Batch of 3 targets.
Target 1
Amino acid sequence: MKDPIPRKTVYRLSLYNRCLEQLGFAGSGTVSSEVLSKIAGVKSPQLRKDLAYCGHVGKRGLGYDVVLLRERLAETLGTSRLPAVVLVGTGNLGSALLRYQEGFAKEGFEITAAFDARPEKRSSDISVPVLPMTELSKFVTERGVKMAILCVPGTAAQSVCNLLLENGIQAILNFAPVILQTPPGVAVNNVNLAIELENLSYFIK
Amino acid sequence: MKDPIPRKTVYRLSLYNRCLEQLGFAGSGTVSSEVLSKIAGVKSPQLRKDLAYCGHVGKRGLGYDVVLLRERLAETLGTSRLPAVVLVGTGNLGSALLRYQEGFAKEGFEITAAFDARPEKRSSDISVPVLPMTELSKFVTERGVKMAILCVPGTAAQSVCNLLLENGIQAILNFAPVILQTPPGVAVNNVNLAIELENLSYFIK
DNA sequence: CTGTGTGAAGGCTTTCACAGCC
DNA sequence: GGCTGTGAAAGCCTTCACACAG
């Protein structure tokens, strides 16, 4: 309801969106908070409270209309028009993600270009243009790209990050094992596979 | 101090470990909570409180001895002996991660084997043995593997997950875009790139 | 005087319980 | 009767402020 939707709620709204997709309802009927919350792995009051940020979208006694709910979610999240994304760093992980391109495409994202200090490393099974770093500024500013996926080595991450910010990038999905120092207003999500694994290992008996 | 370290704290302890690594101190000297917290992107009191879970490891007026701290962290997290990991699903993302193997190795993890319904897809630049799914039970139980990375399509994720749990897997790093239904006592960390991107797009002005 | 360790305060999220609408 | 929407309560985590050790 209130303007500033809590970070964690935004996260879960995306999640609910994916869960609805997964349900594969062909426009059919409604879901109850009970059912949907179970799929999403949260408690039902939480789901209801989260969805309340999208306005009164549920019907009491019935549940949530699937189609309507998805529309509202997309609207609230601003997912109707998905932003262009560039990827920087085509090493192991970077080119891996480029090969996974179709996975992103299915979810509505498209990597418009990739950049690397040594673009000739580009392998033949990658369909995205791989350009030298020197072209990054021009490309990003001309096309008004606002999001980037960062896959450079940790040692280069901060300086490449700075370069991105100078050219108007506002959100970064960071795979480099470094916490980026950024000014307020820039969104950074970190994905650190080593930490994920280490974290899991803690819970093994 | 108390036995049950909060989940989020465990997470950050791993993070601090990585930050120390990044500092690259060759056994030299100490770090203050002020400095280390800045690198890790948290506030200094938080860092101190987190580190207090490792016992009295800091020296007042001096800071934290880097070597000692790393030892204590490894001890607390149980990272001294790192567990074996298997990867399931060698599609786009799965084989991408296998190619990234050396990235894991640098952080101390090793994928001991990969499994797929069609293992012949194995490409030549992957050094990890790729075995058919039918061998999974035997491999996992015989070697006592407790951790798995799950990269199968969403439609297969839950059933493969069940198979893993039946064979004694206790922790799963899940890349499938599905929330896995698991009994308590099993740890699951989800990595969903589409959600990360969607989430970031929300914060673009 | 510097910098850790920590009780107490504060803020944010989750959970509960139930009123209200279909 | 069923299920949403939501104030109130509880819980958890973060932040603060300061005592205290080196």
Target 2
Amino acid sequence: MKNSYEPLHRDFFMQSTIDLAQALLGCTLVKITNEGTAAGYIVETEAYMGPMDRAAHSHQNRRTKRTEIMFAEAGHVYTYLMHTHCLVNVVSSDKEKPEAVLIRAVEPVAGMELMFKRRGMTDIKNLTNGPGKLTKSLGISMEDYGRVLWEPPIFISNGISPHSISQGKRIGINNTGEAKDYPWRFWITENPFVSRHQIESKKPVI
DNA sequence: TGGATGATGGCCT
DNA sequence: GGCCATCATCCAA
């Protein structure tokens, strides 16, 4: 395990949301707490495109206490609660443009013991292969809401270069009309830690 | 102020 | 695949 990680510069986040969603693949997501450091390579992301995207919380510029941080500068942390789980997003695009990238899965890299302890299990394949699982493993919570990702205790660092990137429909947004079919999910091809290996349509898409 | 909602996960059959 | 725990947030009234 590395002793320290170097955060990427804030300029890294200044690219289009679709580009950022892919650029984040292979990067290391690091969280430091008083329990220790935990980190993972980002292997799966989804882009949420703001006002025009019915699946986005910021659809039609909906601006509430929850979505407020989506309107901030790129590189802020947008965490929110889904049932009993915390999900983490990277705010993207310009100020006042509420776009974000959801981190859906990481590959464990450092702090494995701590992650297992937090999750209360020992199966590495199920440790961080989902948006709620990775936040619990890394110790990411609502306390991280509004933090910036270019300095500790939560930040993005260099990692690996994906050999190949796959693209498909986003997951879990089946009540959002056409938006459910937009191909804004990205993952490292054949990485064993992605949340789902393929999405099948039960009915043919016309 | 209350009821509906959900970018999930774990357990069940 | 189905069921549902469980709770902050949101919005209608």
Target 3
Amino acid sequence: MPELPEVEVTRLSFAQGIAGSRVVCVRMGKALRWPLGCPVSELVGRVVRAVRRRGKYLLIDLDQGLLLLHLGMSGRLSFAEHLAPAGAHDHFEMKTTQGTLRLTDPRRFGAVVFADSDSAPIAQKLLGKLGMEPLSDDFDLSRFHAGLKRRKSSIKEVLLAGDVVVGVGNIYACEVLFLAGIRPTRSAAGLGRGRIAKLHAAIRDVLARAVASGGSTLRDFSSAKGESGYFQLEAMVYGRAGQACRVCATPIESIRQGQRSTFFCPHCQKS
DNA sequence: AAAAGCCCCTGGATGC
DNA sequence: TGCATCCAGGGGCTTT
């Protein structure tokens, strides 16, 4: 479900509300991707300072240590003073003095992991190799260029890998490559400066607009307040195999790259 | 170092 | 209606 815009919108929807609260109790359901890494009792009484984001991870800063939270494919957060009774897919719940934070995640690819600090081994393992933040100033064109130049695999797979730039998932990778007019199978290293500049701009624009408009609802996203997003632009290519390109009416093609679906317009994305 | 595959898990859509 | 198959917005891990 969640790519960078959805994660960021989720963060914005509860960061203020939870900051300054104190943890009252924590309840775990079925196992998520990794164990929490500390006894739940150790979290009780700690103060929630702030919520940051790095890539698709949310970092919940406590007065001592932090929680790394990932939504995986199907995760969703809720934060409210009173939540409905926990259901079968609610696998993490943290009650605080200002409301309860709940992770609902049917597929359980998501995770909640405790780390002593940003430099703790577990935090380094999960965050250490992440690429540039596309919406921050460190997403610099020269560094993007340099990152792509040493990668022989396809540009689509490099975007998805997240070690050059983070946050671009399968939907946005397809959309951004369409906007930049780049064939997803093109080798990253083979792209010229001009096309890389265009791609760089497309990534910033699309992600920023998606955050500004409350996250994409290309499927079923909703923030931790339960507000559903409304991505103002419809998908140009994602999920549109066989349908007419919105620009040139050529049928959109679908292929597999690295076990994921890719959609593109063979005419608008000639090379 | 980088690339390619595998796998974790459940639910919804589709097809017979 | 029932059952099998395929697909899904992620990403760490192992093997080449």
